[in-house]
Amino acid sequence: MAEDSWALAVDVQEATTPSFQFQFSKKINRIRGPLNVKEDINANVVQNKIPDEGGEGDGDKVDLAEQSLLNKLIRHSLVKNRNQVEVQQADPNSPLFSVKTFQELRLKPELLQGVFNMGFNRPSRIQENALPLMLAEPHQNLIAQSQSGTGKTAAFSLAMLSHVNPDNTWTQCLCVAPTYELALQIGQVIEQMGKFCPNVKLAYAIRGNRMDRRVKLQEQIVIGTPGTILDWCTKYKLIDPKKITMFVLDEADVMIAMQGHRDQSIRIHRLLNKNCQMLLFSATFEDSVMKFAERVIPDPNIIRLKREEETLDTIKQFYVLCREKEDKFTALCNLYGCLTIAQAMIFCHTRKMAGWLASSLIKEGHQVALLSGEMAVEQRAAVIERFKNGREKVLVTTNVCSRGIDVEQVSLVVNFDLPVDLEGNADNETYLHRIGRTGRFGRRGFAVNMVDSENSMEIIKQIEMHFNRKITKLDTSNLEEMEKMAI
Ligand SMILES: Nc1ncnc2c1ncn2[C@@H]1O[C@H](COP(=O)(O)OP(=O)(O)OP(=O)(O)O)[C@@H](O)[C@H]1O
Q: Are 269 and 188 part of one and the same domain?
């Protein structure tokens, strides 16, 4: 087993023992309440004083070793972060490492101000490498891969803000994202970073955002989903695509590989001038997708990860062995306390399953939020906002939220259903994006996979083989071993 792999495999039988339930609910409940996403989580841990070994003697027969283990796991998952990020930014092997400072990246003063105002001290590796390429004159195209949560969005947002000429009141940068939520989020990053650029304006080309359809947009940057962007370029003529000089495709691999997205992305691409600068970003690029991108993008610079670099060491991957579907629900209920230590996302394969799971959890008295594709956009926006503000701790969702969503307090991702492709094989890229909702920018995270059949065990093996990372079952009965790994 890889030295850095942890595992938390919970056999359902174990999961229903009183001591286990103590582990995953009572103890955690004690620290759950006052956690506030806006505050330093370490401070909360200290304030709430997770009891040391020995506990408070509240009547449950609790194995001291289990308590000690639980405390360590909690502390590990909540380790804050700022120190760890700084350590990683100094470690040459970390994706957060850079030799340069933001000042050395020659950003405009108002953008530097924006960056520092967001609390960024140093660039990550992708920011250090991609920004000079994106800002070079004459302009260059770029296809860039970097692990989830390592600052790609920040990188291309800075590139767009640097690129635009605020005196020109027409759309110059177009950024396309696969989902409504992601487009909103990228827009928020651009707004925050561009806080000190008062003349740079942004418009959201997303469903439900009705613009005056007779007048061309004056906003220099437009961020949106492909269908609405196409409408704005062709049907409503709010944007003159020939005047676009920077085009960003976020989550570029899914935009190229998924049929609906691909057709729309290609149609937008065809509308652009041949010399428009093209920037493609993702945490994953399957070989065939990369080849396609290289064919479509003229003379691109390419920043690509080796397969073994794609996973983040800071995300510890577990699997939970369940005997059948119903057991998954029991195991999840028993994990509920754990889910609410900070925040958690639970992924299901279908909208129907997500709906069922959310309502079943609510029936059991747990508080969860649901976000899936069939909901009205206003509802979706409200749910994601509540989750981001920390008012919802647990989000049950589908692949609609598997990519890009950035909530730093998500410490745990649960794959209630493992991600599979149409043939039922492991969907490695989706797996990586899903677990990447935790472990943001050097933070620690946990990913728990629910395994309920030989077939799903096979999928776990395929994922392990693909990334060459062990996803380990670790028996809670083997506490000593578990403890060693938690350190
Ligand atoms: N240089 C930096 N210093 C500190 N924090 C940063 C820096 N760059 C980005 N971040 C923060 O790190 C988090 C992840 O960044 P971002 O969302 O840009 O990652 P990403 O690579 O686009 O992720 P994904 O692959 O999931 O789309 C965000 O909360 C962002 O504010």
A: yes
Q: How far is the CA of 151 from the centre of ligand 1 (A)?
A: 3
Q: How many CB atoms lie within 10 A of CB 87?
A: 12
Residue nearest to atom 14 of ligand 1 (CA): 149
CA-nearest residue for atom 25, ligand 1, is 148
Alpha helix (H) residue ranges in 347-449: 351-363, 377-388, 428-435
Residue 18, domain member (yes or no): no
Atom 18 of ligand 1 has which residue's CA nearest to it? Answer: 151
In terms of residue numbers, what domain contains 239? 69-73+80-303
Domain end among 303, 337, 370? 303
Considering only CA atoms, which residue is closest to atom 2 of ligand 1? 120
ipTM of the complex: 0.99
Among 103, 127, 185, 441, residue to substitute to test ligand 1 (most atoms within 8 Å of Cβ): 441
Going residue by residue through the chain, which has 487 residues, state the pLDDT in tens, using 9 for 90 and above: 332 222 233 333 333 333 333 333 333 222 222 223 233 323 232 223 233 333 333 333 333 444 445 445 545 555 545 566 666 766 777 887 776 899 998 899 999 999 999 999 999 999 999 999 999 999 999 999 999 999 999 999 999 999 999 999 999 999 999 999 999 999 999 999 999 999 999 999 998 887 777 789 999 999 999 999 999 999 999 999 999 999 999 999 999 988 889 899 999 999 999 999 999 999 999 999 999 899 889 999 999 999 889 999 889 898 988 888 788 898 888 777 777 778 999 999 999 999 999 999 999 889 999 999 999 988 999 999 999 999 999 999 999 999 999 999 998 999 999 999 999 999 999 999 999 999 999 888 889 999 999 999 999 999 999 999 999 885 554 445 444 544 3
pTM: 0.82
Please report whether residue 40 resides in a domain: no
Whether 124 is in the pocket of ligand 1, judged by its Cβ within 6 Å, is yes
From 348, 344, 308, select the one nearest 328 (Cα to Cα): 348
The finding on whether 277 has its CB within 6 A of some atom of ligand 1 is no
From 260, 276, 303, the end of a domain falls on 303
283 lines ligand 1 (CB under 6 A): yes
Which residues contact residue 360 at a Cβ distance below 8 angstroms, ignoring those fewer than 6 apart? 329
The type of residue at 341 is I
Domain CATH number, residue 220: 3.40.50.300
Q: Ligand 1, atom 9: nearest CA belongs to which residue? A: 151
* 19, amino acid identity: S
